[in-house]
Amino acid sequence: MTTGRDKEQRREGQAGAVVILSGGLDSATCLGIACAEGHHVTALSFDYGQRHHRELAAAARLAAHYGVAHHIYELPFFRQLGGSALTDDAISVPTEGVDKAHIPSTYVPGRNLIFLSIATALAEVTRSEWIYIGVNALDYSGYPDCRPEFMDAFANVATVATRAGVEGMHIEVKTPLLHLTKGEIVARGTALLVPYEMTTSCYVGEEEACGVCDSCRLRLAGFAEAGRVDPIRYQLRAKN
Amino acid sequence: MTTGRDKEQRREGQAGAVVILSGGLDSATCLGIACAEGHHVTALSFDYGQRHHRELAAAARLAAHYGVAHHIYELPFFRQLGGSALTDDAISVPTEGVDKAHIPSTYVPGRNLIFLSIATALAEVTRSEWIYIGVNALDYSGYPDCRPEFMDAFANVATVATRAGVEGMHIEVKTPLLHLTKGEIVARGTALLVPYEMTTSCYVGEEEACGVCDSCRLRLAGFAEAGRVDPIRYQLRAKN
């Protein structure tokens, strides 16, 4: 499925960028940064059977807001693969707060690696030089695929896996949020006028955010740290 | 979709391996090698809208022959992505012979990177230590993602992208065919009693192999080099 309006002609000399857009706070900020940096952006979202499927509608709203092309690719196999509270209804979403000593049950095996690989293919086809992904090492230290070690390991792969590597060009992965706190992300996005009211972060995926899952807790703490009020609606607002 | 019989209990100390199985000659040989090496194998195939969709039936036959678990994951986005004669009906499959100076139109952007990434996720979930992929640098020198440079770049990624990297374990990619000629692959598989009559390689994807597409030409040359007769049926047999 391809949604959103068609791209306008790329301006001469303007570099193409693929932005992985979940519809949450981090990826929305990434999209705002990529657009502010003057790239010709193609946004890419994934329907992987996630419990919080409504984030795809948020992604579409964000892409329309920025006037960029938007693709939603279906990855039905994630539900067959299982192993995560986000793709297996039998595993409940934790609401007791973040435990940094263990990998959370909301971790989806291989997700960022697979997302980056597909973004690489789209970058190749659209002749884009950049891939933006909103991974964040500090808040999500429990997710193996949000670690700087992983991003470093992947750094060279996109170029050598594709036509770019044969033709002497580069596809590079940009992670502008990697070392920011959630509060710094909110501050950065607020300065860029990112429309956070269009985003959704709650893992439970209901109309109003639950306010107590790990994702809601991190988001609320981020807005508090930045001295801002989160514009979306919550059922509860955990004090963290 | 999950097909094939269920895995028997893994024997103590037996390492798990995910084998990427297209149903063609190379991946069948890879499967034969992984089984001969004593691994507890999970075979993984992809339905990516390929023109030669019938290779999936060949993969299922091979998995059943070896008595290993077999998963077929659907990747419908490859047709949206386009850019290849194998996934876009508007681009015809070349039949004039292999031109090593250019990337062939049968190259599918990002394919091996995406396949390896998904195999990595399956290795994580099945606690497998090995991923086997039948890439071959000599015959397919025109495909960017069959180059040793790519395999080297990916080598460290599977481990650091996953739980394995956090828990001090490894997921490693094995490419036993990387530097073999097609003839050497046939000789190796023949010695291992790989049932080549179950495989299919033709890109056109009809009941009988066309005999003139790049894939048929390479396969026929491989059997000729090994001094063997290819057991599958052809409409024509190109002299290369």
Automatic annotation (TrEMBL), chains A, B:
<keyword id="KW-0862">Zinc</keyword>
<keyword id="KW-0479">Metal-binding</keyword>
<dbReference type="GO" id="GO:0008616">
    <property type="term" value="P:tRNA queuosine(34) biosynthetic process"/>
</dbReference>
<keyword id="KW-0067">ATP-binding</keyword>
<comment type="similarity">
    <text>Belongs to the QueC family.</text>
</comment>
<feature type="binding site">
    <location>
        <position position="210"/>
    </location>
    <ligand>
        <name>Zn(2+)</name>
    </ligand>
</feature>
<comment type="pathway">
    <text>Purine metabolism; 7-cyano-7-deazaguanine biosynthesis.</text>
</comment>
<dbReference type="Pfam" id="PF06508">
    <property type="entry name" value="QueC"/>
</dbReference>
<keyword id="KW-0436">Ligase</keyword>
<dbReference type="GO" id="GO:0008270">
    <property type="term" value="F:zinc ion binding"/>
</dbReference>
<keyword id="KW-0671">Queuosine biosynthesis</keyword>
<keyword id="KW-0547">Nucleotide-binding</keyword>
<comment type="subunit">
    <text>Homodimer.</text>
</comment>
<feature type="binding site">
    <location>
        <position position="216"/>
    </location>
    <ligand>
        <name>Zn(2+)</name>
    </ligand>
</feature>
<feature type="binding site">
    <location>
        <begin position="21"/>
        <end position="31"/>
    </location>
    <ligand>
        <name>ATP</name>
    </ligand>
</feature>
<feature type="binding site">
    <location>
        <position position="202"/>
    </location>
    <ligand>
        <name>Zn(2+)</name>
    </ligand>
</feature>
<dbReference type="GO" id="GO:0005524">
    <property type="term" value="F:ATP binding"/>
</dbReference>
<feature type="binding site">
    <location>
        <position position="213"/>
    </location>
    <ligand>
        <name>Zn(2+)</name>
    </ligand>
</feature>
<dbReference type="InterPro" id="IPR018317">
    <property type="entry name" value="QueC"/>
</dbReference>
<protein>
    <recommendedName>
        <fullName>7-cyano-7-deazaguanine synthase</fullName>
        <ecNumber>6.3.4.20</ecNumber>
    </recommendedName>
</protein>
<dbReference type="InterPro" id="IPR014729">
    <property type="entry name" value="Rossmann-like_a/b/a_fold"/>
</dbReference>
<dbReference type="GO" id="GO:0016879">
    <property type="term" value="F:ligase activity, forming carbon-nitrogen bonds"/>
</dbReference>
<comment type="function">
    <text>Catalyzes the ATP-dependent conversion of 7-carboxy-7-deazaguanine (CDG) to 7-cyano-7-deazaguanine (preQ(0)).</text>
</comment>
